[in-house]
Amino acid sequence: MKIFYGVQGTGNGHITRARVMAKELYAQGFDVTFQFSGRPADKYFDMEVFNGYQLKEGLTFNTEKGQVNYLKTALQARPIRFIRDINTLDLKGYDLVISDFEPVTAWAAKKQKVPVLGIGHQYAFNHKIPKTGSDPIADQVMKYFAPADQGIGLHWHHFGQPILPPIIETPEFPKSIVNNKIIVYLPFEDQSEVIKNLCPFENFEFHIYAPQPVESRYPHILCKPLSRDGFQKDLYDSAGIISNAGFELASESLQLGKKILAKPLHAQMEQISNAAALEQLGYGHTMFNMDVAVIENWLHNRHAVHITYPNVAKIIVQWIKDGMPQMDMKFTEAVWDSVDVLQIKRHADI
Fold this sequence. Notes:
InterPro entries: MJ1255-like (IPR005262). Pfam families: Glyco_trans_1_3. It comes from Methylotuvimicrobium alcaliphilum (strain DSM 19304 / NCIMB 14124 / VKM B-2133 / 20Z) (Methylomicrobium alcaliphilum). The protein has 350 residues and is α/β, with parallel strands linked by helices. The chain has two domains: 2-168 and 310-338, Rossmann fold (3-Layer(aba) Sandwich); 181-308 and 341-345, Rossmann fold. It has twelve helices and 14 strands. The strands form three sheets. The chain has a six-stranded parallel sheet, with helices on both faces. A six-stranded parallel sheet has the order 9-8-7-10-11-12, sandwiched between helices. Strands 13-14 form a two-stranded antiparallel sheet. The radius of gyration is 20 Å and the shape is globular.
């Protein structure tokens, strides 16, 4: 089978998920072409697994001080270029298009009548799951941004719906952690403001990853450029993570048993809903603004959750190989039966 796979590159979570899917697709012998859109070409990193890939400008959201700015998003959009990218993407000879919320691929496939399979967290919002912060714009974005003939939604819990667990790497659980080591990934925030809110906590060591790291004058705050390998090594033996409420990073953190403090992007329904789900499930804590008091309480909170998820990428790839039969509740329940949730109490407060 020949597959064209489109990935929304605005956030690293979509690319992380695609890396896992790529390994499984190649292992099964599929002929796959990857296309990414949503960020400048020089901002992609650690892309070797894709065996070469295409880039399109696509559509992206403008964020400013931790909030989606819909006016700037509209002003920066280049509709003529977007339509041209759709019209010039030739999908002749492909049996299936997979879209991880990537609009150029999804709309080109729709136009050329090639079957589109949507895989991603966003497609879970087609079902009855925790959803808050919605508005007419957000609803239209979810519906029309990257339409699919069939969507496989992913979430941390099934909520009684035919959705699947996250697609993530399944590393070995850390044998030991550094109790005062905290990873910080707030790429849409003012990094100087992040440092200002963390500097009082000198008994903790903060590793801040950002697209454009700023200089830190505090020995307990280390600012680092984005690196997939570097980030994973730091996350592996850390005690917890402070991040926006993106789906993929929270999924990896739960798999590794890290405590989570999530700050959702304002005016971004998906992230606000993710924050609500973390709180509802008891999987993490949230703050809606940078708040020193909330950060302090969370730093000294000993509770974390370790969730063992199966290799969902392998399950989906096998399902595609089997001809994509109906993915009903019976199918998804069998997958969720292998998920194990463990409550963790870390060592005493620092």
